[in-house]
């Protein structure tokens, strides 16, 4: 089973460089027949008493988030960088990861998939950071340092 995992692609996290819009366009095409059996999306929500507030003084999304701008077969709400449960992925799945933030949520989920022996790749062409190109590139460097063969820049 081939799965496209869209990490935290919410308009609240749109960047000023237009990368978010490019990724949403890619996602809409993928949903219409891009060779994926399933599209799973994560959605970052902040309960108001999360570690995002405790450690980062980050009060975004406490009152909720807008609807996703693409269709997904499954949407998983999360209050952390990674997921609590990865059982929605079949053991024999091939997972392509795209999304926001390359050096945080994308990185954390990729590391978790790595630790659980999943077959995955990170399509960095469809990842970004609201901190800009420099932050995105730093995330890509970290991903390459940790799992070079899982990083695909031109897909």
What does this structure look like?
α4 links the parallel β5 and β6 (about 150). With about 160 residues, the protein is an alpha/beta fold. The longest helix is centred in the C-terminal third of the chain and has 15 residues, at about 135-145. A 6-stranded parallel sheet has the order 3-2-1-4-5-6. Helices cover about 30% and strands about 25% of the residues. α3 (about 100-115) packs parallel to α4 (about 135-145). The mean pLDDT is about 90. The chain starts with a strand and ends with a strand. It has helices at about 20-30, 50-55, 100-115, 135-145; strands at about 1-5, 40-45, 75-80, 95-100, 120-130, 150. It has 4 helices and 6 strands; from the N terminus they run βαβαββαβαβ.
Q: What structural class do you assign from the helix and strand content?
A: alpha/beta
Largest sheet: 6 strands, parallel
**Rg of Cα set:** 15 Å
Ranges where pLDDT stays below 50 over 5 or more residues in a row are: none
What share of residues are in beta strands? 15-25%
C-alpha termini separation? 19 Å
Mean pLDDT: 89
């Amino acid at each position: 089973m081939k799965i496209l995992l869209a990490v935290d692609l919410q308009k609240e996290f749109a960047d000023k460089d237009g990368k978010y819009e490019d990724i949403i366009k890619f996602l809409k095409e993928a949903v219409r027949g891009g060779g994926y059996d399933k599209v799973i999306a994560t959605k970052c929500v902040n309960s108001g008493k999360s570690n995002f507030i405790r450690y980062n003084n980050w009060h975004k999304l406490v009152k909720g988030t807008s609807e996703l701008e693409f269709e997904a077969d499954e949407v998983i709400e999360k209050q952390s960088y990674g997921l609590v449960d990865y059982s929605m992925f079949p053991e024999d799945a091939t997972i392509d990861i795209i999304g926001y933030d390359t050096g945080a949520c994308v990185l954390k989920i990729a590391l978790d998939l790595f630790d659980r022996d999943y077959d995955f790749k990170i399509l960095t062409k469809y990842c970004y950071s609201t901190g800009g190109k420099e932050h995105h590139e730093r995330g890509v460097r970290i991903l390459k340092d940790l799992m070079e063969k899982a990083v695909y820049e031109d897909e």
